[in-house]
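Structure (tokenized):
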């Protein structure tokens, strides 16, 4: 795909990073912003286009993070900006549950079309991924009359009290935040790099844990991330989700695909669960759905969604007119510009450029991913022991050299690469070169 951007698609540094204006803003921030709102890189952004961010000092920075998977279609896409601007000039809020509007209905129609499954589907629109997950929990409990909720080890489902209970990693999200709601269970998953199990073997381990420690007939919903984002770009072995889906069907459990990070074209399909040839009962969508505007959704089987009484789910700003206008523009762009195909191109480019890092660098245990969603797991040489210090060093080097890249993993040892699907092969090559500099230095400095 050839596109023209308002910002040249190249890395260009005119100051050290962070630059003087960013340093000044950071000083202001420290006086007014709570430290709990931590920041990966104290580089303050002014504008962006495509896969490039421009900071307040004029530095052009390659973005391999997309605000954790949000700007899948690229930064400040003019079609999305135009749609949101036109809607903002016309109507900004009524609250759909007071007086409705067409955008909300149109988004629900599109979600029914693109989510997996050929059954009738209904949706509710909310604001954030955590809010979508919470509503999915409520819906599943109402439908089944059960209370227990199951999530996988290494999962991340949000930062609210309930969704933190469903999140695996204790630090920093959960530390000191309890108590958490009961009837939430974390169960073993498939992590091929670490467990070496086939999909069926891992699934039987999961099922055995459930039947031994929880009881299948107690479970309302089983939440899965088809590709775990914060967990370290963990992709279960083939067959794992198919067996879990069968188990849920056999026991009347609502199977929920949390597609908040991996969904909406990021991995070369509309929803990453499609890589596993599995149809969920419910799907949660957020992040990339509206090109940077706050919007999320729960979509699923109409009989499950409609088990909740009117007024039982919803919220003041859910499905806001401006956010839904942006989402409709995003849907159009994905189809018009073949962004599913672009995600596959990015996968090929990343695989070609970084796919050999495990052979090339002794501290790289595995490179894995789909589409524009890759993980590089860092380990101590000759072992599978996590190497979080290396991850910190790589991110620091990348950031100070104009590449934004994310951390991930239950042991903070996975480099998370999540660029826009419109990133050029040239930018991928440049960013990889910067990261390789850090990996080379770490290998050279590793104690003999």
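Design, position by position:
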């Amino acid at each position: 795909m050839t596109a023209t951007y308002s910002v040249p698609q190249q890395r260009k540094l005119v100051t050290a990073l962070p630059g003087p204006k960013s340093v000044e803003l950071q000083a202001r921030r420290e006086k007014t912003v709570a430290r709990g709102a931590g920041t990966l890189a104290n580089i303050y952004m002014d504008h962006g286009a495509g896969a490039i961010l421009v900071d307040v000092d004029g530095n052009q920075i390659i973005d391999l993070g997309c605000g954790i998977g949000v700007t899948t279609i690229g930064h400040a896409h003019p079609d999305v900006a135009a749609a949101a601007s036109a809607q903002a000039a016309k109507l900004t809020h009524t609250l759909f549950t007071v007086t409705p509007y067409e955008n909300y209905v149109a988004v629900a129609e599109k979600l029914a079309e693109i989510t997996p499954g050929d059954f009738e589907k209904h949706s509710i629109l909310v604001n954030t991924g955590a809010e979508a997950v919470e509503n999915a929990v409520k819906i599943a409990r109402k439908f089944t009359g059960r209370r227990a909720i199951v999530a996988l080890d290494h999962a991340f489902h949000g930062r609210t009290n309930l969704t933190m209970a469903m999140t695996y990693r204790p630090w920093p999200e959960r530390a000191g935040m309890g108590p958490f709601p009961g009837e939430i269970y974390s169960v073993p998953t498939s992590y091929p790099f670490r467990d070496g199990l086939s999909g069926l073997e891992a699934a039987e381990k999961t099922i055995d844990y459930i039947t031994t420690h929880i009881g299948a007939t107690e479970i309302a919903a089983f939440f899965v991330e088809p590709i775990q984002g914060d967990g370290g770009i963990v992709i279960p072995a083939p067959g794992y989700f198919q067996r879990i889906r069968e188990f849920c069907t056999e026991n009347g459990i609502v199977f929920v695909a949390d597609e908040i990070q991996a969904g909406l074209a990021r991995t070369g399909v509309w929803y990453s669960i499609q890589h596993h040839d599995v149809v969920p009962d419910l799907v949660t969508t957020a992040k990339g759905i509206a090109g940077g505007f706050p919007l999320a959704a729960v979509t699923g089987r109409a009989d499950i969604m409609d088990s909740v009484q009117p007024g039982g789910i919803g919220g003041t700003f859910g499905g806001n007119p401006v956010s839904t206008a942006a989402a409709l523009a995003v849907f159009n762009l994905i189809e018009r510009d073949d962004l599913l195909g672009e995600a596959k191109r990015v996968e090929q480019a990343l695989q070609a450029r970084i796919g050999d890092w495990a052979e090339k660098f002794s501290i790289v245990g595995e490179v894995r991913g789909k589409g524009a969603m890759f993980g590089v797991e860092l380990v101590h040489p000759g072992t599978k022991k996590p190497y979080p210090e290396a991850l910190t060093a790589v991110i620091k080097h990348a950031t100070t050299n104009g590449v934004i890249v994310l951390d991930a993993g239950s042991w903070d040892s996975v480099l998370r690469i999540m660029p826009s699907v419109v990133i050029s092969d040239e930018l991928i090559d440049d960013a990889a070169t910067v990261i390789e500099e850090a990996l080379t230095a770490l290998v050279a400095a590793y104690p003999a």
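Reviewer-requested clarification: The chain has two domains: 20-63+340-445, 81-336. Residues 81-336 form a domain with the Aspartate Aminotransferase; domain 2 fold (CATH 3.40.640.10).
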